Structures are given as C-alpha cells and as structure tokens.
Amino acid sequence: MFNPVTYYRLARWLYLHRIPLLPRLVEILNVLVFHCYVPYTVEIGDGFEVGYWGIGVVIHPRVKIGKNVFVAQGVTIGGRNEKPEVPRIEDNVFIAAGAKVLGDIVVGEGSVIGANAVVIRSVPPRSIAVGVPARISRGSTWWNRSIWEALKTRLCRLLVE
User: Fold this and answer.
1) pLDDT at res. 158
2) Does 2.160.10.10 match the CATH number of domain 43-160?
3) What pLDDT, on the 0 to 100 scale, is given for residue 54?
4) Would you state the pLDDT for residue 123?
5) Could you tell me the end-to-end alpha-carbon distance of the chain, in angstroms, rounded to an integer?
6) In angstroms, how far is CA 137 from the centroid of its own chain?
7) Strands 135-138 and 49-50
C-alpha cells in the first residue's frame, strides 16, 4: 500500500482532476519518503512496480511507460543532454538495478534491460540488452510470456521475503 507507485497514482489522479498544488506536494512527499522521483505527468500503465521501494529511481516527466513494467532500484529513464526526446517503454518490460535508459528510444514489448546497462539505442521486442553501451545479447526468437511471468513471480517473492 505505501510505496512510490501509490503516491504516484494519487498525485496523477489529483493532476487529472485539475486539483491545484496537491499533486506537486504528493510528488515532493514521494521524493522525501522513498527517494524516488516519479512525476505525476508521466503516463504509466497498470501493473507498474518498483523494486526496493524505488530507491534512486528517476523518471523524466514526459516518459511513457506501458503495462506490467518492473523498474528496479537506481534506474534512470530520461533524455540525453539538450535533446527534448525521451524514451518510450512498452508493455511487459523488466529494467534491472542501476540501468540507464536515455534518449529518443523505444524499449520493445517483453524486453529485459540488464543491471547497470546504459541503453542509448532502441531495443527490439522480446530482447535482452546488456552492457555499456547496451547491446542486444539475445534476440526475440527464444523469449515468451511464460518466462516473463516466472521472472516477475520469482523477483516479487524475493522482495517480499
């Protein structure tokens, strides 16, 4: 119940209902309590989760995130230098700890971003991106939804314990 996503959802609801000042206060409270910056202007689908209460997560205000996306601690999703473009994260994506997703890119559906990867190019659907800068280590031929569900279930179990 008390996690950064709950605070984001509350701030987003207040923002969409045009209630002044309160969304910004909830956003600031989210940063102070969880050290997690998820602005209320971000468009996030259902099933969005953050690991370890979102410690160190920073998301650009114009980013669009799909459904069932998991973001681990220390992840940055945003623009590059002076360019106004920001990433778009599609459905069922897993972003591991410390990853950076930067610039005008698309992370395809069902993809996995490895720990501490720096993604500066688009990632095709159902792929794994690892390294600095990130390279595609596995293509889309082997990946399926059951692997994603198993990975998410195992990770959620570890976080609860």
Assistant:
1) 65
2) yes
3) 87
4) 93
5) 16
6) 20
7) unpaired
Provide the residue ranges of all domains of the chain, joining segments of one domain with +. Answer: 43-160
Kindly give the pairing relationship between strand 70-71 and strand 94-95: parallel
Distance CA 32, CA 11 (A): 15
Give me the residues paired with residue 58 across strands.
37, 76
Q: Which two tokens stand for residue 55?
A: 């410690």
C-alpha distances (whole Å) from 104 to each of 87, 88, 94, 135, 155 are 5, 8, 19, 16, 29
What is the per-residue pLDDT across 111-158, written as a single tens digit (0 to 9) for each?
999 999 999 999 999 899 999 899 998 665 455 556 666 766 766 666
pLDDT tens-digit series, residues 44-93: 999 999 988 889 999 999 999 999 999 999 999 998 887 789 999 999 99
Q: How far is CA 108 from CA 71, 96, 113, 137, 140, in A?
A: 15, 15, 11, 14, 10
Q: Which of 36, 20, 18 has its CA nearest to residue 28?
A: 36
Q: Distance between CA atoms of 137 and 35, rounded to whole angstroms?
A: 32
